[in-house]
Design goal:
The complex is a heterodimer of chains A (255) and B (286).
Chain A: H1 2-15, H2 20-47, H3 53-73, E1 87-90, E2 93-96, H4 97-119, H5 121-131, H6 133-138, H7 143-168, H8 175-190, H9 195-212, H10 228-242
Antiparallel strand pairs in A: 1-2
Chain B: H1 2-28, H2 36-53, H3 58-82, H4 85-105, H5 107-110, E1 116-117, H6 128-151, H7 153-163, H8 165-170, H9 175-201, E2 203-204, H10 211-224, H11 229-245, H12 253-274
Antiparallel strand pairs in B: 1-2
The chains are: A mainly alpha (255), B mainly alpha (286).
Chain lengths: 255, 286
C-alpha cells in the first residue's frame, strides 16, 4: 500500500499534471480501495481458517503488486516533488518545509487516532474486537465491519507513508519490503496491540539507523551506510530474544 | 533440447536438498519461518569465501560451512522457541535482510554485489551430463533420507508438536530438541544445495538469494503439499521448468523479471487457496 499510494500520487501529479492536493487525495483513495480489495480477497477467506495464512497470501499479493509497479513505472526512482527543497534551521537542525508539514500532519493523525481509540464508543468497540472478536460479537459489536474498517484505515496510513516518502525523497519498487519488515518489527517489539509501543519502536529503529552513520564511533571508525538497516534489525531481534512478547506487552483479556 | 532438459534436471536436483529441508521445518513441523535463504546464504558464503578468497582446502571449507550453518540454524531454532509464530515469521525475514546486507556491504571479504566468480567444478563433473548425474544421485539420496526421517520417531514427534505442542510435551517430546534437529537438517540441506549451485553457475551471486528466492521455496512447498516429500519433488520439477522456461519466451529482458514476480505471486496465492486447509490445519480434537 506504501508503493500504491506513493506511485499513484506521483503519476497523478507528475504525469497527469493534477494539483498536488488532488493527487494526494487520489493516492489515499486508491490506497483505501486496494486495501479493501486485499481484505476481501487475500485476508478474509483465509483468516477464518488460520490466522497465519494471510501472512503468506499477502506476501503473494506484494509480489504481484511489485511486478505490476515495475511494469507500469519501471525501476527508476520517482519523486513526487523533484528538485531542491526549501530548508530552514530549527534549534540548530536543518529541516525542509515539507518535512515540517509531514511531522505536523503525523502528530495530528496520531492525536486523532489516540482520541478515537481511547475516548469514543467506536474506539472502545475496536479495542474489544482486537481483544476478543467472538466475545465482542456476542455483545452486538459488528466485528467483521470493524476488521474491514481497521484494515482500510491501515491501508490509507500506509499510502500516506508512501506519499511522504515520495515527497521527501523518492520511491523505488524495492523500498517497501524493508519498510514493511521494520514496521512489523516495531509492532512486535512494542508489544502487539500497544499503539504507543509501536510508535516508540518505529522511532527507535529510525533513530538507530540515523545515529549509526555519520558518527565517528569512539573516534576510530565510521559505520558504512549499508549496515544501517542490519544494526537496527539485529537490535530488535536481540530485544525480542530477551523480551519475546515485546517491551510494552500487556496480557490480553480472555473471555 | 537435450541441453535444456539436462539444465532443468540439474536445477531440480540441486534444489531438492534445500526444498526438502525447508519442507521438514515449515511443511511437517508447521514452523512459520522464512529464514531458509538466510541459512543458505551463511552456508554458501562461508564455504566459497573460505575456498576461493582464502584458499582453505575444499573439505575444510565444507566443514567450516557446516559449523556456521549449524550455528545459524540453532539461532533460528532458538528464536522459534522464544517468539510467537508470526513474530518468528517476520524476524526470520529480518534476519535474512540483515545477513544479505552484511554480504552486500562487506566487500573486502564477499566482493559485495559482484559475487564470487570463476567457481570451479571438479574435473570429473565438468560437463553437463556428468554434473546432472552427480547432483541426481545426491538429490535422490537426499529424498530417501528425508523420506526415512519423516517416517522415523523423530518425524512423528515433529508432526505431533505441530498438531498439539502441549499434548506432545506431556508425552515427553522435547520441543527444543526436535526443533533444533529439524532446523539443523534444513540447514544442512541448504549447505548441500549450495555446494553444487555456485559450481553449476561458476558464480556465487547475492542476487540469487534475495527474498523472491525464499518465496520460490515457500511456493514449491505449499504447491507440493506441506510435509509431503513426493509432492514437493513433483512441484519442484513443474515450477523450476516454468521458472527456467519463461527465459525462452520472447519478451524484452526488463519485462521478464516483473512477469516472473506476477506469475509466481499468482501461483503462490492459488497454491495457498487450494491448500488452505492443509498449510496450517486446524487442531484435531482429542
Amino acid at each position: 500500500m506504501v508503493l500504491v499510494g506513493g506511485y499513484v500520487t506521483w503519476w497523478l501529479h507528475q504525469s497527469a499534471g493534477m494539483p498536488l492536493v488532488i493527487s494526494i487525495f487520489g493516492g489515499l483513495v486508491t490506497g483505501a480501495l486496494i486495501s479493501w480489495f486485499t481484505f476481501e480477497v487475500f485476508i478474509r477467506p483465509f483468516y477464518k481458517l488460520h490466522r497465519f495464512l494471510p501472512i503468506v497470501t499477502t506476501i503473494a499479493l506484494s509480489m504481484i503488486l511489485d511486478g505490476l509497479i515495475l511494469l507500469g513505472f519501471g525501476s527508476r526512482p520517482r519523486s513526487i516533488l523533484p528538485g531542491s527543497k526549501e530548508m530552514m534551521t530549527v534549534a540548530g537542525a536543518r529541516i525542509s518545509v515539507e518535512q515540517m508539514v509531514m511531522i505536523a500532519l503525523t502528530i495530528l493523525a496520531l492525536v486523532g487516532f489516540a482520541y478515537v481509540l481511547h475516548s469514543t464508543a467506536l474506539g472502545r468497540k475496536i479495542r474489544a474486537v482486537v481483544q476478543n472478536d467472538h466475545a465482542a460479537m456476542s455483545l452486538g459489536i459488528p466485528a467483521l465491519l470493524l476488521h474491514r474498517l481497521i484494515f482500510i484505515l491501515s491501508g490509507v496510513l500506509a499510502a500516506c507513508g508512501g506519499i511522504y516518502m515520495g515527497i521527501d525523497t523518492n520511491l523505488t519498487p524495492t523500498v517497501a519490503f524493508s519498510i514493511t519488515i521494520k514496521a512489523y518489527a516495531a509492532i512486535i517489539a512494542g508489544g502487539r496491540g500497544n499503539f504507543w509501543g509501536a510508535i516508540f519502536f518505529a522511532y527507535i529503529i529510525s533513530l538507530i539507523e540515523q545515529l549509526l552513520v555519520g558518527v565517528h564511533w569512539f573516534g576510530a571508525f565510521y559505520v558504512p551506510a549499508g549496515f544501517q538497516q542490519t544494526v537496527a534489525l539485529i537490535f530488535i531481534i536481540i530485544l525480542l530474544i530477551i523480551k519475546p512478547a515485546g517491551l510494552f506487552a500487556h496480557s490480553s483479556r480472555t473471555a | 533440447m537435450t541441453q535444456f532438459i539436462l539444465h532443468i534436471l540439474a536445477h531440480v536436483f540441486i534444489f531438492i536438498p534445500v526444498l526438502l529441508g525447508y519442507n521438514l521445518v515449515f511443511g511437517r513441523g508447521k514452523i512459520l519461518h522464512f529464514g531458509q535463504s538466510a541459512i543458505t546464504l551463511v552456508a554458501s558464503y562461508t564455504l566459497w569465501v573460505c575456498f576461493m578468497q582464502y584458499n582453505v582446502p575444499f573439505l575444510v571449507s565444507v566443514f567450516l560451512a557446516f559449523v556456521f550453518v549449524t550455528a545459524a540454524s540453532l539461532l533460528l531454532s532458538w528464536l522459534s522457541l522464544r517468539l510467537e509464530p508470526d513474530g518468528l515469521g517476520v524476524m526470520s525475514i529480518a534476519l535474512h535482510l540483515a545477513v544479505l546486507a552484511v554480504i552486500l556491504n562487506w566487500q573486502s571479504v564477499t566482493r559485495g554485489a559482484l559475487g564470487i566468480p570463476r567457481i570451479p567444478r571438479p574435473e570429473f563433473m565438468a560437463d553437463l551430463p556428468t554434473f546432472t548425474l552427480v547432483v541426481g544421485v545426491v538429490g535422490i539420496a537426499w529424498i530417501l533420507v528425508i523420506w526415512l526421517i519423516n517416517r522415523s520417531s523423530f518425524g512423528r514427534a515433529l508432526e505431533a508438536l505441530a498438531e498439539h505442542p502441549w499434548h506432545a510435551g506431556a508425552l515427553g517430546i522435547s520441543r527444543g530438541r526436535i526443533h533444533s534437529i529439524a532446523f539443523v537438517i534444513a540447514g544442512i540441506g541448504g549447505l548441500v544445495s549450495n555446494i553444487f549451485f555456485p559450481m553449476y553457475l561458476h558464480l556465487l551471486s547475492p542476487s540469487d538469494y534475495h527474498f523472491p528466492a525464499m518465496i520460490f521455496i515457500v511456493m514449491v512447498v505449499i504447491a507440493g503439499g506441506p510435509g509431503r516429500v513426493w509432492g514437493v519433488v513433483t512441484a519442484a520439477f513443474f515450477l523450476i521448468f516454468l521458472k527456467e522456461g519463461i527465459r525462452f519466451v520472447r519478451l524484452p529482458a526488463e519485462i521478464i523479471g516483473p512477469v516472473q514476480l506476477i506469475m509466481f505471486g499468482a501461483i503462490l496465492f492459488v497454491a495457498v487457496w487450494i491448500r488452505r486447509k492443509s498449510v496450517f490445519p486446524p487442531q484435531r480434537e482429542v
